[in-house]
Amino acid sequence: MRYRGYPIEQLAEKCSFLEVAYLVLFGELPTEPELKEWTDKITYHTMLHESTKKSLEGFRHDAHPMGMFISTVAALSTIYPDARNVLDPEVRKLQIYRLIGKVPTIAAYCYRHSLGFPYVYPDNDLSYTENFMNMLWRMVGPMYQANSALARALDILFILHADHEQNCSANMMRSAGSSQADPFVATAAAALSGPLHGGASKEVLKMLDEIGSKDRIPAYIEQIKAGHGKLMGFGHRIYKNYDPRARIIKWAADQVFQVTGRNPKLDIALELERIALEDEYFIKRKLYPNVDFYSGIIYQAMGFDPAMFTVLFAIPRTVGWLAQWQEMIMDPEQKIARPRQIYIGHNVRDFVSIEKR
Ligand code: CMC
Question: Which domains does the chain have, with CATH numbers?
């Protein structure tokens, strides 16, 4: 897996998320002044308009964070009507700053709304992930200070989730954006909440809870093989081998657990992986752990509620969606999306009045 030619392993080891975001969006790694300017632009746009904060108040306390997140991203369209001018490159750039700057703030506000906590404004002296953690977890006092190892692990997870070719949500972004809708509504359309896509990490934890202990794994696998459900966090439309992101996430998990203590679910996950990878059913179908198999375990150890997992995926993936959107808009051959359909319904027939049907 590579972004613009650079192997994901090298980027995860050596770059910050914002550096990778620049690469994904503009094609090259930034020079030092470019990175400084880029970081300044993003941090300048982290604040939400106060009316956005008020509109969040309208959600029920138990609203799903992803529903709140998507709706709030769409609502930005009402705050920034200039964004509709998508054919202007400068306007597009401004919306890119806005979206990447604001998605962590929206995510943190959604989280705090569900807990009934007051919102924490962004702090531009902090890094992208430290600022996000601060907005999530800072209380009245003492001052919250993000653990640097955890912030780095989150940064790496963000790097791994930044983009991934024509997946379900990237395709939605292109499809919605092809109507020249503004990028806020197109990003909201891209969603990614379903359990087969961005929601899979949450489903993995549910599955590990359901299994409960290592000795119950073989029976669980037999049940899957008999056609009762899927092994969540396994399989991928493109990877018919070990998802390279899962390997890096496994490494990041060790760093996180040194700070938080080991998540007991990890042992079940490791054993589940070992047994599945030796099983004829999974070997034959080339089913390996994907990016979501271990990410939920890390997020949970860091203190995130599973309901937030998809939102955590959406923050970095906003970069990928915007890169896909920008590329699509600039493509001179691009037309409005309209998948070809093969109609297999009735041929022409005459209307039948209701009493004769
Ligand atoms: N567990 C058990 N069997 C599976 C699984 C699984 N996780 N995934 C695929 N299969 C089987 C499937 O039943 C089929 O068997 P058969 O040939 O006997 O009918 C065969 O493998 C091929 O499946 P497919 O549906 O053609 O595979 P796909 O490439 O269309 O699906 C997938 C990819 C990711 C939707 C699927 O593997 C899946 O549902 N996995 C579980 C959900 C998951 O982890 N999603 C996260 C994906 S990565 C991050 C993201 O995109 O958000």
Answer: 2-193+306-330 (1.10.580.10), 200-301 (1.10.230.10)
Active-site choice (155, 182, 243, 292) = 292
Residue 304's closest CA among 80, 173, 167, 154? 154
Task: Kindly give the residue spans of alpha helices, DSSP state H, lying in the chain.
Answer: 8-14, 17-26, 32-44, 50-57, 65-79, 89-115, 128-137, 148-160, 168-177, 183-190, 200-211, 217-225, 244-260, 265-277, 280-284, 292-302, 309-330
User: Which residue in the list 45, 113, 164, 236 is annotated as catalytic?
Assistant: 236
Q: Which atom of ligand 1 is nearest to the CA of 293?
A: 44
Percent of the chain with pLDDT strictly greater than 70:
99
Sequence-ordered list of residues with C-beta below 8 angstroms from that of 120, at least 6 positions apart, any chain: 108, 112, 134, 135, 136, 138
Q: For residue 117, give the DSSP letter.
A: P
For the stretch 46-56, pLDDT in tens is 999 999 989 99
Whole-angstrom CA distances from 213 to 205, 234, 296, 297, 309 are: 13, 19, 18, 15, 23
Q: Is residue 236 flagged as an active site residue? A: yes
To the query of whether residue 346 is one of the catalytic residues in this protein, the response is: no
Shortest-distance atom of ligand 1 to CA 164: 51
User: Could you give the CA distance from residue 81 to residue 308 in angstroms, rounded to a whole number?
Assistant: 29
> Which range, of 44-58, 64-78, 192-206, 245-259, averages the lowest pLDDT?
192-206
Residue nearest to atom 30 of ligand 1 (CA): 237
Using the mean position of ligand 1's atoms as its centre, give its distance from the Cα of residue 46 in Å: 37
Ligand 1 atom closest to Cα of residue 290: 48
Confirm whether 254 is a catalytic residue.
no
Q: What is the pLDDT of residues 152-183, one digit of tens each?
A: 999 999 999 999 999 899 999 999 999 999 99
Ligand 1 binding pocket, CB closer than 6 Å: 167, 196-198, 200, 224, 230-237, 285, 287, 290-292
Q: Is the pLDDT of residue 220 over 70?
A: yes
